[in-house]
Amino acid sequence: MLNAILSKTKGDRWIWLIVILLSVWSLLAVYSSTGTIAYKNDKSAEQYLIKHLVMIVGGIALMYFSHKLDYRYYAGISKILMIFTIPLLLYTLIFGNNVNDASRWVTIPIINQTFQTSDMAKLALITFLARTLTRKQENIKDVKDAFLPIMGSVCVVFILIALANLSTAIMLFGVSILLLIIGRISIKQIAIVCLGGLILLSCVIFLGPRRKTYISRIETFMHPEKADPDKSFQANQAKIAIATGGIMGKGPGNSTQRNYLPHPYSDFVYALIIEEYGMVGGVALVIIYLVFLYRCILIVTASPKAFGALLAAGLSFSLTIQAFANMAVSVGLGPVTGVPLPLVSMGGTSILFTSVAFGIILSVSRDIEEKKDGSQEGKKSSDNKVIVGEIPAMA
Q1: What average pLDDT does the segment 348-358 reach?
Q2: Alpha carbon of 227 to those of 215, 219, 253, 349: distances in Å?
Q3: Torsion-angle region of residue 321: left (phi > 0), alpha (psi -120 to 50) or beta?
């Protein structure tokens, strides 16, 4: 049965293994960390585990179908996604569900499931940039035809996300700059994009609707000794979890800080993992994401088409940067943000969109494998023809 499943999955086997490892670890971490929230909501931890399991299984199914689709189709899909993304981000800012003074979610009718629009925006912008940079390679230095559409799409999506979710916007902007560098945009034009992003960032921090929250988080991070204990509570509890985890940890399900951390199943799941699995578990998780990045770099360098290379690079950078941002916050290397750990944190639509991103990367890898297999078969066929042609002559 295992061989039958493996025969239907293509692409980098290491990435498939990484997805399985992260999914299993996610189930263990979520089951361990949801006891307190289950008690508060008069539910059982098993209910949260089953819901999370459904999302994981749904994500793997989406990943499978995404990797079966030829990655070149995502060029056309990116245009459709961008057409819907910008109005949807605007709608979210105005009419979205307000949680902690941030409008990041909209509720999907009928199923009553919340949906974070920035997750779709990340996927849309990265695929759109990969498509645009590929199509404009011949006149990539042209300001009107190439530079302005690229800069416009990056800055518009950045500002719409940043007004409610600054950390996600900054990471997406950084990934966009990396794609521009890979896509041979001139240093001068990249500097202009960075300057525009810096101006927008300053406006959001000092003039935006969540300016007090952003400034407070930065001040708390820079001067924790002067910070209000309530504002530094999450970061302090995460540090306690990490400090008490030691080398080998307390063991699965034995966390105590899960009862104090506000979001041990999402934003601070890495702190809980270190508490239960120790420094060994924390380092192992870092290595898993580094191996994923390494495998993606191999896919990028092996891709014969610019669009495939840019697509794999953008999505892999996005997922890896998000992972390390989450881990950095948990260990106190950055101000508190609401960034989940990809495929590990409990989530709804974020797991599904993350799974699609993995699937697209695997689609690029599958195309590389098929072309390699095709060239090898062609070479074998050519060799056979030579041998068959030589036999009569020898006779």
Answers
A1: 89
A2: 12, 7, 32, 34
A3: alpha
Which tens digits make up the pLDDT trace of 295-336?
Answer: 999 999 998 888 999 999 999 999 999 999 999 998 888 888
C-beta neighbour count of 340 within 10 angstroms: 25
> How long is the chain?
395
Return the residue matching tokens 């990943």. Answer: 63
Could you state, in order of their start, the residue ranges of all structural domains in the chain? 10-68+225-369, 74-209
CA-to-CA distance for 73 and 47, rounded, in angstroms? 38
Cα–Cα distance measured from residue 120 to residue 82, given in angstroms and rounded to the nearest whole number: 9
Alpha-carbon distance of 38 to 387, in angstroms, equals: 71
* Alpha helix stretches (DSSP H) within 147-254: 148-162, 166-182, 187-207, 211-222, 233-245
CA–CA distance, 259 with 33 (Å, rounded to integer) = 8
Q: Where are the alpha helices (DSSP H) in the chain?
A: 2-8, 13-33, 35-40, 45-68, 73-95, 117-135, 148-162, 166-182, 187-207, 211-222, 233-245, 269-302, 306-330, 349-394
Cα 92 to Cα 103: distance, rounded to the nearest angstrom: 6
Note if the pTM is more than 0.90. Answer: no
Q: Residue 139: is its pLDDT beyond 70? A: yes
Q: What's the CA gap between 161 and 98, in Å, rounded?
A: 14
pLDDT at res. 125: 92
